[in-house]
Amino acid sequence: MDLRDVSDDLSQVLYTKSQLDERLAEIAAQIDADYERKDLLLVGVLNGAVMVMADLSRALSIHCEMDWMAISSYGSGTSSSGVVRILKDLNSNLLGRHVLVVEDIVDTGLTLAYLLENLRSRKPASLEVMAMFRKPEAARNDIEVKYVGFDIPNEFVVGYGLDYAGRYRNLSGLGTLAPHVYS
Ligand code: PRP
Predict the structure, then answer these.
(1) What is the pTM (predicted TM-score) of this model?
(2) Which atom of ligand 1 lies nearest, measured to the CA of 104?
(3) 3-state DSSP call for residue 148?
(4) Which residue out of 47, 73, 112, 156 has the highest number of ligand 1 atoms within 8 Å of its CB and is therefore the one to mutate?
(5) Which residues are catalytic?
């Protein structure tokens, strides 16, 4: 789905697919250098990270393995509570592995804080995070994200894996959802 297909639903286009690809190529080059000759395991957080995982992994020049976790945040509606339930755990053992968590977005950072604590207890050799988008104004902690695609405003954004009511994940770029869609 192209940004033009849902232009009436968006109040602003933030990034086109080609802008996202350009930034991903830069990040992939950094990851190539940082993990050269290391056994890299990408851990994608379902569902939102599917798009960035697919594009980032293919932009890498080094080998990597991929694994997935599905988690669900307890609490009301759209706000993250930081208490997370694991719906699908990893298939891989993390002991001694170089693990890079791949996220579509870090919003409050509460999900990531829980996830990192959980993954750290499995004793990986290293544990870092790549997030395609981050909302600095929404942050409720100061978790370090080593690779950030773009810092974005604290608005309701959709596309590139991010949904509203299950839709717009397959939108190729990122846009701000117009209030008439959700109000
Ligand atoms: C999104 C995103 C992160 C989390 C970030 O997932 O993929 O995992 O929210 O929010 P936080 O920083 O405020 O904790 P969501 O729970 O919407 O599930 P989804 O990936 O299936 O859309």
Answers:
(1) 0.95
(2) 7
(3) strand
(4) 73
(5) 107
**pLDDT (tens digit per residue) in 28-46:** 999 999 999 999 999 999 9
Written as six digits, the tokens of 55 are: 């594009």
Residue 76 has pLDDT above 60, yes or no: no
CB under 6 Å to ligand 1: residues? 45, 47-48, 73, 80, 103-112, 163
Strands of the sheet with 40-46, listed across from one edge: 84-88, 65-73, 40-46, 98-106, 126-134, 147-151
Instruction: Look at residues 31, 26, 23, 1 and name the one whose alpha carbon lies nearest to residue 146.
Output: 31
3-class DSSP string for 3-31: HHHHHHHEEEEEECHHHHHHHHHHHHHHH
Q: Give the phi and the psi of residue 118 in degrees, each rounded to 5.
A: -60, -45
> Which residue CA neighbors atom 22 of ligand 1 most closely?
48
CB under 8 Å to 46, separation ≥6 — which residues? 68, 69, 70, 71, 88
